[in-house]
Amino acid sequence: MTAASALLRTVPSKRSDRTGEVVTALLNHDERCFFRRRIRAGDPGSSMFVVHNGRVQVQVNDNGRPRTVATLNEGDFFGEMALFTGEPRTANVVAVEETEVLEIGHAAMKQVFDTNPDLVESLSFIMSERRAGLATHADAGAARTAESEGILSAIKRFFGLSQ
Fold this sequence. Notes:
Blueprint: H1 3-10, H2 19-27, E1 31-34, E2 47-53, E3 56-62, E4 65-72, E5 77-78, H3 80-85, E6 92-95, E7 100-105, H4 106-115, H5 118-134, H6 142-158
Antiparallel strand pairs: 1-7, 2-5, 2-7, 3-4, 3-6
């Protein structure tokens, strides 16, 4: 599985006839590596990861203790918020077992977004859902829609896409 196919399989989108181009763009830029390090909330990030095999846990700090909010498996991705908006990492991510990930950087995503702009909107919705899940007082409905629109705008601005 490539980072491209994993990401495209995970993200529900209005896939255009350019899906093959998206896959090709990511095939040229993904890097497979073992996830041995720990991502910490607040750290800067310039890439995202797709789990190729293994499992990771996404954790938030809950009164000084880590609390697991999600377990991600093959095909799931993480680190997208830092990559897509330039903001610091929002959660801790730790490997539960030996885990191989595919790393995707800014240049690869820029090419993908240029050729498949519908993917930007789909990813912004997923990111807003994840942010709401990380927040302790997530207010669904209108707040989620506003959050999705804000993330969509930030991604487009960060990647120099038309608003």
